[in-house]
């Protein structure tokens, strides 16, 4: 099974990510991993931290001569801001007078819930791990999962559907999403230029008021064969796995597969994707007139594009803080302020790509197995022939 986890704090020395279970013999291009990290740092409305960090993956193990060797992969991302925090957050005792307290919890953040859970007198240690900075480590190992999926003909990308009240009205075809990926400058990662300009105007308005803005991103997995995931057990369903993976990202409060939200208010005749049969295309000769199911039926991929939307709440840290309570005195105060962003929807989309890629890679390995890429690809191509002959 493909397994992964991360470690590290937002202002600690580094983030570390671990990925275990990939077959040996997968060629990994360091520049691709670093570009994925760069994409996560882009977007209109990002804060000052992005001017400090220039993430680059330092691969410590599991890859030699640019090839996976079957052993666990570990990746380190140095925090350049660490030089400003090593006295405030030392591993040893240090000087308590230099500690930077988070004296009042921010509404919408993990501050208060985490302090209550771990019995901390204030929220510094909660902030350090709950911060979305952690998602950079996921993007690093997610990039390696993307490299694996490419060998199977699967590509995973994202685009922004809405920022605040400004939303794109049409489904975006794969070719336009690909074109977004090739941009040298990422604004709000929206495929429609006119809508993107209105999104930018919305961010500008919020910036002037000291507020923050959420939105919706969509992750699209192109080239996914039918048969990933299963209906046999509740925790093995592909839609459940993807929903959990995307929901695990900081600030995501809802997840939608295909047209799930609109489907809930529509009759079945307008929702379900009718089936036809014609010339072989992609994996089989079975065809669909639309993709309201988002590429998943009964917990199993059906050969259409897998489409997953994440609904991102506004960032919890506001330059014009909301009402809170002082941890020490219990008196009413304004919530603490830490350097933050105004809008992170495009970056959240990139992090969600990583989570979707890791999930699809896990399901693909469960389906096709293999200790080496040669073995995995033999199994995959044999399955393709089975589909073509069905």
Account of the 3D structure:
This protein is an alpha+beta fold. It has one domain (3-388): Chorismate synthase, AroC fold (4-Layer Sandwich). It is 33% helix and 21% strand. The protein is built from twelve helices and 17 strands. Strands 8-7-9-15-10 form a five-stranded antiparallel beta sheet. Strands 1-2-6-3 form a four-stranded antiparallel beta sheet, covered by helices on one side. A hairpin with a 5-residue loop joins β1 (3-8) and β2. α1 (30-40) crosses α5. The radius of gyration is 22 Å and the shape is globular.
Brief description of this entry?
This protein has helices at 30-40, 49-52, 111-118, 124-130, 135-151, 174-181, 193-209, 238-247, 260-263, 268-271, 345-368, 373-388, and strands at residues 3-8, 14-20, 58-61, 63-64, 67-68, 73-78, 155-163, 166-167, 215-222, 252-257, 275-281, 284-288, 296-297, 300-301, 306-312, 323-325, 332-334. The protein has 390 residues and is of the alpha+beta class. The chain has a single domain, classed as Chorismate synthase, AroC fold (4-Layer Sandwich), CATH 3.60.150.
Classification by helices and strands: alpha+beta
Write down the CATH class.
Alpha Beta
CATH architecture: 4-Layer Sandwich
User: Main sheet, how many strands, which sense, barrel?
Assistant: 5 strands, antiparallel
**What is the H/E order?**
EEHHEEEEHHHEEHHEHEHHEEEEEEEHH
Query: Shape, please?
Result: globular
Residues in helices, as a percent range: 25-40%
Alpha plus pi helix count: 12
Q: What name does the CATH topology carry?
A: Chorismate synthase, AroC fold
The CA-CA distance between the termini, in Å, is 28 Å
Main β-sheet, spatial strand arrangement: 8-7-9-15-10
User: Roughly what is the average pLDDT, rounded to an integer?
Assistant: 95
Beta-strand proportion: 15-25%
Compute the gyration radius: what is it? 22 Å
The CATH superfamily appears as: Chorismate synthase AroC
Number of domains: 1
Uncertain segments are: none
SS elements, strand count:
17
């Amino acid at each position: 099974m493909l397994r992964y986890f991360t470690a590290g704090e937002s202002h600690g020395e580094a983030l570390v990510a671990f990925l275990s279970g990939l077959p040996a013999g997968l060629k990994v291009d360091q520049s691709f991993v670093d570009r994925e990290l760069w994409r996560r740092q882009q977007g209109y409305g990002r804060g000052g931290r992005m001017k400090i960090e220039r993430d680059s993956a330092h691969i410590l193990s599991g890859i030699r001569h640019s090839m996976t060797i079957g052993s666990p992969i570990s990746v380190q991302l140095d925090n350049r801001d660490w030089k400003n925090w090593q006295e405030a957050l030392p591993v040893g005792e240090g000087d308590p007078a230099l500690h930077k307290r988070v004296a009042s919890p921010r509404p919408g953040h993990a501050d208060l819930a985490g302090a209550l859970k771990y019995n901390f007198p204030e929220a510094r240690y909660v902030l350090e791990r709950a911060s979305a900075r952690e998602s950079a480590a996921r993007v690093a190992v997610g990039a390696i999962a993307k490299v694996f999926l490419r060998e199977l003909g699967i590509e995973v990308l994202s685009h922004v559907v809405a920022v605040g009240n400004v939303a794109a009205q049409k489904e975006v075809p794969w070719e336009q999403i690909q074109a977004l990926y090739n941009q040298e400058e990422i604004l709000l990662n929206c495929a429609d230029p006119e809508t993107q300009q209105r999104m930018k105007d919305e961010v500008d308005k919020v910036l002037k008021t000291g507020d923050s803005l959420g939105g919706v991103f969509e992750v699209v997995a192109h080239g996914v064969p039918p048969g990933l995931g299963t209906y046999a057990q509740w925790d093995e369903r592909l839609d459940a796995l993807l929903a959990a993976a995307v929901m695990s990202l900081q600030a995501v409060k809802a997840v939608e597969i295909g047209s799930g939200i609109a489907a809930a208010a529509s009759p079945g005749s307008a929702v379900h994707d009718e089936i036809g049969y014609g010339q072989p295309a992609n994996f089989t000769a079975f065809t669909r007139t639309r993709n309201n199911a988002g590429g998943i039926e009964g917990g199993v991929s059906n050969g259409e594009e897998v489409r997953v939307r994440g609904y991102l709440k506004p960032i919890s840290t506001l330059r014009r803080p909301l009402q809170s309570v002082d941890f020490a005195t219990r008196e009413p105060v304004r919530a603490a302020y830490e350097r933050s962003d105004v809008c992170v929807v495009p970056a959240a989309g990139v992090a969600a790509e990583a989570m979707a890629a890791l999930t699809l890679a896990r399901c693909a390995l469960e389906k096709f197995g293999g200790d080496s890429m040669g073995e995995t690809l033999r199994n995959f191509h044999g399955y393709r022939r089975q589909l073509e002959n069905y």
